[in-house]
Amino acid sequence: MKIKINGEFYSFDKELTILELLKELNLIGKPVVVEHNGDIVIKENYDKINVLDGDSFELVTFVGGG
Predict the structure, then answer these.
(1) Is 6 domain-assigned?
(2) pTM score, whole prediction
(3) Residue 5 CB contacts under 8 Å (≥ 6 apart), including other chains
(4) Whether pLDDT at 66 is above 70
(5) Domains of the chain: total
(6) Could you read off the pLDDT of 5-64 as tens digits, one per residue?
(7) Interatomic CA distance for residues 5 and 1, integer angstroms
């Protein structure tokens, strides 16, 4: 399966949910906004939406500072 994340292509050998994708990318526990094929996904649905070949994601993380 090949997907696009923040403009770059990634390949995965297995089917994933958005939650599993975030685990693969080491983003669990970090504040992140997920846009999937142009739509914002609420956190409660991360484990309900399957990632499909050709999907596009924008993942925005937040960094604190002063």
Answers:
(1) yes
(2) 0.90
(3) 25, 56, 57, 58, 59
(4) no
(5) 1
(6) 999 999 999 999 999 999 999 999 999 999 999 999 999 999 999 999 999 999 999 877
(7) 13
In a domain, 66, yes or no: no
Reduced DSSP (H G I as helix, E B as strand, rest coil) percent helix, strand, coil of the chain, to 5 = 15, 40, 45
**CA dist., res. 23 & res. 15, Å (int):** 13
CATH number at residue 28: 3.10.20.30
DSSP secondary structure code for residue 45 in this structure: G
Q: How far apart are CA 12 and CA 24, in angstroms?
A: 10
> Which tokens is 29 given?
């526990």
What lies within 8 Å, CB to CB, of 51 at 6+ separation is 1, 3, 12, 15, 16, 17, 18, 20, 21
